[in-house]
Every structure is written in C-alpha cells, then in structure tokens.
# Entry
Amino acid sequence: MQGHELDYVVQAFEGGHIMGDGAFTRKCADWFEKQMGVARALLTTSCTHALEMAALLLNVQPGDEVIVPSFTFVSTANAFALRGARIVFADVRADTLNLDESKLEALITPRTRAIVPVHYAGVGCEMDAILAIASRRGVAIVEDNAHGLFGKYKGRWLGTLGCLATQSFHETKNITCGEGGALLINDEKFVERAEIIREKGTNRSRFFRGQVDKYSWVDVGSSYVMSDVLAAFLYAQIEVWESIQARRRGIWQRYHAQLADWGSAQGVRLPVIPPHCEQAWHMYYLLLPSLDARQKLIAHLKARGILAVFHYLPLHLSEYGRRWGGKSGDCPVTEEVSERLLRLPFYNTLDEAAQARVIAAILRFSP
Ligand SMILES: Cc1ncc(COP(=O)(O)O)c(C=O)c1O
# Structure
C-alpha cells in the first residue's frame, strides 16, 4: 500500500455507497480525463472487460478480422474472438517486442475491423506508422495499454492515441486495486453507448444523472462497473502515482546500469527504449541467448530463493490460436523471443537490498 488506501475504503463504506460510479470512481475518472485528456474514462472490472467493451462498441461481428500481436496476453485476442472475429496474429519488432508496424499493411483485408497494439512492458508502439496505416485503411485502433499507464509516445500519453484504449489495475500493475481496469474513450462518439454497454445495456447512467426519469434496456451490454470500494483503493494509488513511478524508475535503472557489462559479456540483451518513448517503468526483462540459458538462469535464481518468470507464449501457436491456422514460423520473432525472455522481480515494494541480492545472483551466472 502506498498512501490512504484503507482510509478511503473506510470512507466509501461510511458514505453508504459502495456500488459503482460513486465519489471515488468519479475522482479516478477525473484524473484520466483532466490529467491525460481523454474524452471519458470508465472504470471497469478488468482490462479484459474493457477490451470486451471495445469489441462491442466497434460492433465486431462474426467474420470480421482483428489484428493483434501474437506476443500478448490472451485477453487482447479473446475479447474479439468472443464476438466471433477471426483473429489475425502479427509478429513483433525484435527491439521493443511491440507489434511490427512494417508487417501490418500485409495483414489488412477488407474484413479488418480493428488493430490492437499492445505497448509491451510500457514502451510505446510505433504509433505514427500504425495510426497512419489504420486511417488510410479505415480500421479502428484499440490500444491495449495494460502495461503502459504513465508512459508516453512522442510526448503523448499512451492510452490517448487510439479511438479507444484499455487499462489494467490488476495486482501486477504499477497502480492497482487488486482486480480492475478502465476503458479510455478518445473518440467522443463512443461515450454514450459505452455507458450503456457497461451498465447491462441500460441507460442507467443517464438516469443517475437525472437525464431520464426511468431507465430501461436499450442495447446489448453486461456488468462491467467497478465497485466504489475498489475505486477508493485505486484513487489512493492514483494520488501518489508520481512517487510510485519514481520508485519504479529507480528499480528499472538500477537493473539496467548494473547488468549492462554482464549482459554484453554474456550475450544477454537488455530492454531497448527508443528515444521518442518515455516508458512506463512497468517491467524489466532479459533476453538470454537461448531457451536452455533462460531455463538455467530460472533454476539458478530459484536455488537462491529468487522467483523470475518468463512471459507470453505465442498466441498463434496456442491450442485456440491454431484454429485460425497458426503454425510455427508465422511469427518468428515472437516464437524466438518468448523462449528467451525472462522477467526479473519488479514490484513497488522491492527494496534496494533485495534488488541487490537479485543482481548479485545474476552476475554470478554465465549462460
Ligand atoms: C497486455 C495485457 N492485456 C490485458 C491484460 C488483462 O488485464 P486484466 O487482468 O485487468 O483483465 C493483461 C494482463 O496482465 C495484459 O498483460
């Protein structure tokens, strides 16, 4: 915990209003709207649900195609597969591990409805190129910004670049309320319907604002509203976001500085941050020379009581992903990187002494 989390949770209970869209939800949404400049921020039960809302808002239908990086979390694809879309997997760039914009154009067909770039590890995708291709081909961009809150691309906040963007406040994220998310709406035309979809397909939000005298079923929708108890917890974290980010920046920079010589001597690649990206300090990873070296380092660290974990398995090679014809060799960078990548311990409460032990253990390892 970082600040007033428990005080605010108690306040939410004392205020007698713990369902969604209470005072704390409003404060959180205000932050996104005023600080980041999004047209509307809707807190949701998860990033997965915010992605599902995006698929509903874009009217994705069976037979439509949606392009996602293969190197991502299952929800990036699943939210659209739920609507019957055919998922088209794109490979990632070897440097940032973000969707490879140079391969995008070839994947677009007349059925393509959306592209979902993921700002992996909180480092911006090449959004100028992606947005230009999307606007030329009339395709929507939904940023899956689960990792990228507080990051910027050419001075613009990640999450403000697509017509829609999604955030995660899962425990593993920079700021959290355990489970939670947000849909950021940058194109105003989606606001009214998004409120309806989030409220079980009803115009309940208009009713609460006194704009209609009763609410009723007006569209499809589901139950995507975050409880104000969780919003209270989240708001306490948003209040101190700068100190959370400063702490995480320190962790990231210590890894980067202290592992640089070892990395170049051992053929281990450290993260690459393009100069035009301000990263979100979300994750620190290593790219080992081989799968075998990665597994040995995991075991080496485990023997010293340190948990380091790999990340996404290529979605196009998953049991479900193969339904769309995914096969080995389709996304060579994804396939290779997913075997070599290792995430190092990285959380808000990681102190310098604990991190020094992790670094010392790594420096004693040779692939
Ligand atoms: C890229 C990406 N998108 C979406 C999600 C889903 O987030 P949530 O757990 O809030 O549904 C995750 C989860 O970590 C993720 O890494």
User: Anything to note?
Assistant: The two ends are 37 Å apart (CA to CA). Residues 241-266 form the longest helix (26 residues). The chain has twelve helices and twelve strands. Residues 84 and 133 are 24 Å apart (CA to CA).
